[in-house]
């Protein structure tokens, strides 16, 4: 596994967005993804959730053994595990409406880095505030599904501040090999990741029975991925969804993705049926220590 942060491989420009997420850094030139484009994508997100609120939501398992769930857009998530390719990973990665969760990570685990402050654009902030109202209810519904499978397990460990919306931009692939892997295989750290990537192909999930399965680019669908945190607190009842993103063969277009993650209260502990104390804070400390990204300069 490659233990290095997601970072622009060119010299960092003067004007960058610094984002501390999963103990890695993302450095992005504003010129790659201007404010006008950002606002248009957030407007699309608002319209999506407006539809979501009005329409009946369904879901089904991709495969029972991996607990991949579809409910009414498509996919993706940034990872530290990037394969060594010739592509320049100019990943756009921006926090939008809450950062207490990640500041808590910084404080608890003593890693250097900072989360950005609230967005200062009044129009954009207004759009995001409307989007925010709908997101947690979506996760509450999902957690009820998983809770039922666990015999009524209490997900009271989830705080409303512990979720994050991001917009990610993968630039066109510049390597001649169009089958290039754009994002290496990984399992997200959170409880759940809810991903929207309409008309964007490339997501694959690992099936214990069938290997790597291609997830179709379904319009108006979410893909919900189980994170390592949920696997831990459920004591393996739910397995983390291993996934990766491959470049489309013969195509070099950009990939733009909405990504929403929900995490645990870092002070949460739970006693299992065997009497073992499950401490989510200690678990994350062990999980993140192997990346050793705190030694990287900002």
Automatic annotation (TrEMBL):
Protein name (database record): Isopenicillin N synthase
PANTHER family: 2-OXOGLUTARATE (2OG) AND FE(II)-DEPENDENT OXYGENASE SUPERFAMILY PROTEIN-RELATED
The species this protein was found in: Candidatus Kentrum sp. LFY
InterPro entries to which the protein is assigned, alphabetical: IPNS-like_FE2OG_OXY, IPNS-like_sf, Iron_ascorbate_oxido_reductase
Domain called Isopenicillin N synthase-like Fe(2+) 2OG dioxygenase: residue spans: 163-249
Taxonomy, superkingdom: Bacteria
């Amino acid at each position: 596994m490659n233990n290095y942060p997601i970072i622009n491989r060119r010299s960092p420009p003067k004007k960058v967005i610094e984002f501390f997420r999963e103990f890695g850094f993302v450095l992005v030139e504003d010129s790659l993804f201007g404010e006008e484009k950002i606002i248009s994508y957030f407007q699309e997100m608002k319209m999506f959730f407006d539809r979501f609120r009005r329409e009946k939501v369904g879901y089904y398992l991709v495969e029972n053994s991996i607990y991949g769930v579809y409910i009414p857009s498509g996919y993706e998530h940034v990872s530290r595990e990037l394969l060594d390719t010739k592509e320049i990973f100019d990943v756009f990665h921006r926090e939008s409406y809450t950062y207490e969760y990640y500041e808590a990570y910084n404080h608890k685990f003593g890693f250097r880095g900072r989360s950005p402050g609230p967005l200062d654009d009044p129009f954009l902030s207004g759009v995001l505030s409307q989007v925010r109202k709908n997101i947690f209810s979506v996760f509450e519904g999902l957690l009820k599904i998983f809770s039922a499978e666990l015999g009524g397990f209490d997900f009271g460990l989830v705080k409303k501040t512990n979720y994050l919306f991001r917009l990610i931009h993968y630039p066109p692939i510049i390597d001649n090999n169009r089958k290039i892997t754009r994002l290496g295989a990984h399992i997200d750290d959170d409880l759940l990741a809810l991903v929207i990537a309409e008309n964007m192909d490339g997501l694959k999930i690992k099936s214990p029975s069938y290997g790597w399965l291609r997830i179709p680019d379904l319009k108006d669908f979410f893909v919900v991925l189980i994170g390592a945190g949920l696997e831990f607190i459920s004591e393996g009842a739910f397995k983390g969804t291993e996934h990766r993103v491959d470049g489309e063969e013969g195509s070099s277009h950009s990939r733009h993705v909405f990504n929403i993650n929900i995490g645990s209260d870092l002070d949460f502990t739970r006693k299992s049926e065997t009497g073992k104390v499950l401490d989510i804070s200690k678990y994350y400390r062990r999980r993140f220590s192997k990346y050793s990204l705190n030694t990287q300069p900002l």
